[in-house]
Amino acid sequence: RRVLLLGEGNFSFAAALCGAQGTHVVATCYESEEEAAGRGGAARSIRRLRDSGAEVVFSVDCTKLKEHFLPGKREFDCIYFNFPHCGRKAGVVKNRQLLAGFFHSCAEVLAQEGEVHVALCNGQGGTPADQPRREWHNSWQVVAVAAGAGFILSDVHPFKAETIDGYKCTGYRSQDKSFCVEGALNHIFTQSTAPLCFTPVSCKTQLGSQNVSFQVPQVLVDKINRGFLEGNSSHPVRTVKEKLSAGLSQAFALQNISSCLPLLHQGHPDGVCHSNLFWITLSPGEAPSTEKMSQGLANAVVFSHFGQDTDKSVQEGRPIPQQFYLRPSLLPHAQAIIKKRAFSPGTLQVLSGPVFRKCRIAPHSMPVFHEMLIVLAVSRGTENSCIQMLVDNIKTTLNSLHQGISGIKASISLQEATSFGTELNDFAAFEWQLGEILHFLCVGTDPDHSGSCVGVIRTAPDGLKSRELVVVSASLNLDLLAMLLCGISDWRMLWTSDRRFLRQFPEGELRLFKSFSLYPPSYVHDVSFWVPDGEELDEVAFHTLARKVSGEMVVSIQLRDNFQQPGTGRRSLCYRVTFQSCDRALGCREAAEMQLHFREEIQQHLGVTLR
Question: Residue 79 above 90 pLDDT?
């Protein structure tokens, strides 16, 4: 390990590290050798360093590290900068500038998985770890400054000077005087994954009897075909699915539907708000012919509720509407199986895969998630007992998983749809659009709270029922379940490309998640505009544009003001947009650029007049 130490005062910290096994120390200071050696104890520490084989370099500017080391010696595994300061009575602004130059310089000499350790006096960092915490404007804003250079705060712990043999802090106001380090913190930064590159992505899928391709909506570019549920995946979403399947198989015969389910649906879905769908245009020259599509749909897939318009067109021989959208649910595929009677009574049919829904921005609102759909045909009159048996099995499995992970029993409840008292989350609200619901399945970690809706129980529509059998289905949001079980507070973390996420989940294991990006900075911007006369703002489209321009880095959108101009009746809206990333560095300049792009997009696509 190559370790670089910057800003050493009397070199006592470097001398304490130089004997570590397998560590090559490069100790530096800003002053010349003559100036540095004049500090108390410095000459002795320098001799000790050189005797142990360490390098000692003088007159090193921490903002220009690349200039001080030859190309073959620039890659350091760890960089330490203890109590950086511009000197004398420099204020917070100058010290932020110093840190900004330092972090940008570190990015040029740090190994790929290296660490940057910055020790700061109590309160300087400006994070919640500081006790007491300074006001943000009066701190060094170390996390935001580091983010501007591509670093995230991955750990923070007390700087215990008394445990470092021979260490003596020095340099108070650029003098050979010590200063108070009680309550000081060591901030450990790591390099963030690179910013997402939203190049257009084309996806192939089957539609009827034909293979077609389409351009993926930009907001889904990094989420399409990720393979979370594939056999070689160790993603917690797949582990939750496998654990649930194993639990269900102990009480029921179980059959996984292994055929590839089409990503696209066609036509105009009844009952579903069109603004919640990702509408798709097929690649030029790839739209399936009416004749082939009619034959494919008539012979294979006729969606009750979702495909009634298309089904009717097929039956009456009329042209099929050439409108396509990404599947928002697996329910139509289950209904196709039911209609063809392609199931065995008493056997669970399990379908799973990603589904896509436009929605507002919120911590548990996901434009894409993995649905597990369980379908069971039972004898008429036994449906209530079978539903209870199915739910009890799911409850037992989830309780066992939650207790094994956190040692606490989860709060799992089945609530009737007619008496559901908790405000619907986006998952539950959309499920209402798909058809009548009997029960909501809610999971929470607080016994005094009913928890979040993670599943719904329903019976098949009347048109699919028979005299002898009733078909029961349970739709589960696997992503929400993984979040609740593993303590993941932000759904976006499930889709991170940072390898540190999956490293915490060895294959087949669920564990409490420990974030590798602590106290991520947030940036607040307001946008106000006039709404076109006589029109209502499509809030889902508004939020979707925010997702698109920011790469899912908008964490909150709140309406701040709704103003109607006297006399003209014109209406103005003001929204507060908060930018924050959960897994990678986001600097203030990047957030400001996103805000400007957002303003341009809403003006172009929503027809509003910016103020």
Answer: yes
Task: Look up residue 457 and give its amino acid.
Answer: I
Mean pLDDT (the chain) is 86
**108 shares its domain with 257:** no
- 0.85 surpassed by pTM: yes
Cβ 219 vs Cβ 546: under 8 Å: no
CATH code where residue 576 lies: 3.30.70.380
- Boundary (domain end) residue, out of 434, 469, 503: 503
Q: d(Cα 240, Cα 323) in Å, to the nearest integer?
A: 35
The CATH number covering residue 415 comes to 3.30.930.10
Closest CA relative to residue 367, chosen from 433, 454, 306, 278 = 278
Q: How confident is the model at residue 110 (pLDDT cuts 50, 70, 90)?
A: very high
DSSP string, 180-239: --TT-EEEEEEEPPPPP-----EEEEEETTEEEEEEPPGGGTTTTT--TTSTT---HHHH
In sequence order, the 6+-apart residues with CB closer than 8 A to the CB of 410 are 398, 399, 402, 403, 443, 444, 445, 484, 485
Structurally, how many domains does the chain consist of?
3
Tell whether 309 is covered by a domain: no
For the chain, percent of residues with pLDDT exceeding 70: 89
Find tokens 């050798």 and name the residue: 33
| CA distances for 566 relative to 442, 570, 572, angstroms | 47, 8, 12
- Say whether both 339 and 456 belong to one domain: yes
| Tens of pLDDT, residues 160-185 | 988 888 888 775 555 566 677 889 99
What would the mean pLDDT of 100-124 be, rounded to a whole number? 95
Q: Can you tell me the distance from the alpha carbon of 576 to that of 566, in angstroms, rounded to the nearest whole number?
A: 24
The residue ranking higher by pLDDT, 515 or 309, is: 515
Same domain, 167 and 122: yes
Q: 466 and 532 in one domain? A: no
Q: Which domain holds residue 604?
A: 523-610
